[in-house]
Design goal:
The structure is a single chain. By secondary structure, the protein is mainly alpha-helical. The chain contains 6 helices and 2 strands; from the N terminus they run H-H-H-H-H-E-H-E. Helix 1 packs across helix 5 and helix 2 crosses helix 5. It is elongated and about 60 Å long.
Length: 115
Amino acid sequence: MKESLYRYLIKCSVAELPPEKQLFYNFVQDVEYAYEEQADTPDQYFDLLVKRHPYVQAAEHFQLPVETARNLMIEIEQEIRNAADNRMQQVYWLDYTQQVSAIEHSNKQYFFIGI
């Protein structure tokens, strides 16, 4: 559950980036996802990364030096991770299993998640 919540917080953090950073981040992510779809094995995926690294493609697409593209992606990823980590520390859970079970009989657990 925590992993799903953290992925959600990452998506929220990406959505709050300035548009130009969102565009750059999503471009690199899309290239990586395309490689994942294309590759049948981890070795094939690694070969694709070595032959046409997403930073190189992003640099060409956004007309940046490769090192600038790499540094920008590292900066964006750090920004996203910091925002998600900060939110994760503010998350609280309330167990509503007893209250819901009194109304609806099931073996499920019910939680309210506040951020």
